[in-house]
Amino acid sequence: MAEPQVRIATVDPVWERICTEARAAVQNEPLLGSLIHAGLLHHPTFERALSFRFSLKLASNEMSEQILREIADDAYAQAPYLIAAARADLVAVYERDAACHRLMQPLLFFKGFQALQSYRIAHWLWSEGRKDMAYYVQMRTSEMFGVDIHPAARIGQGVMIDHAHSIVIGETAVVGDNVSMLHSVTLGGTGKEEEDRHPKIGNGVLIGAGAKVLGNIRVGDNSRIAAGSVVLNEVPPCKTVAGVPARIVGDAGCSQPSVSMDHLLEK
């Protein structure tokens, strides 16, 4: 007689921790009970909670919450890499943002994380040839979160956008894995020609608040861009640039600037 097959339950430690945090939060602040139950505890999985948040935030009189929820559910079902990227982004925020003390916070309260997940669905729509719907998601993401990322831009995993106000990332921009950027960052073009005209940001890069990186230039892996800088030329790996226009002022100071989040320049 054949041995019966044993089904091992799938364990999701990230989602389990989020739910544990959520239950504790309801006890500590009962007035948020309805919000936390609707946003987290009502859902069986991380991706279902992501779909709910996406549809709730981006719905309008022009596009219902139900339609947006169906789009998000379809995206996560067909492209599981979107869920993996969201998890990496969530952990990145938790590990790098000193104001983040629980995994549930970005999912419920941080517009940088939420805007990035909305972009990821828009990018999936774009790659599926549904460009008009992708533009709609881009528009609503900009209206709701103050973050304007073209759906054709390519962004890696483990990305943190801290505070996230007035972020602009252009159509042909590329952002690598494990990048951190603060508010008012622009990854922009230098002309109106339809060509490859936006920056290519390497892995592990830290981009300070208000920095502008313009044109089809490469910012090397594990480099730092100081706050308020305007970068118009290539940046070698593991260097720090600062100023207007930005110039190399030293080494990056560590192996992973985007993780250390150290913005200070050596004197």
From TrEMBL:
Pfam families, per database record: Hexapep, SATase_N
Q: Which SMART domains match?
A: SATase_N
What keywords are annotated for this sequence in UniProt? Acyltransferase, Amino-acid biosynthesis, Repeat, Transferase
Does Ribosomal protein appear among the keywords?
no
Reaction equations catalysed? L-serine + acetyl-CoA = O-acetyl-L-serine + CoA
One function term, GO molecular function aspect: serine O-acetyltransferase activity
User: Serine acetyltransferase N-terminal domain: from which residue to which, for each copy?
Assistant: 14-118
Identify the pathway: Amino-acid biosynthesis; L-cysteine biosynthesis; L-cysteine from L-serine: step 1/2
Instruction: Give its E.C. classification number.
Output: 2.3.1.30
Q: Which family would the database say this protein is a member of? A: Belongs to the transferase hexapeptide repeat family.
Q: What is this protein called?
A: Serine acetyltransferase
Which species is listed as the source? Thioclava litoralis
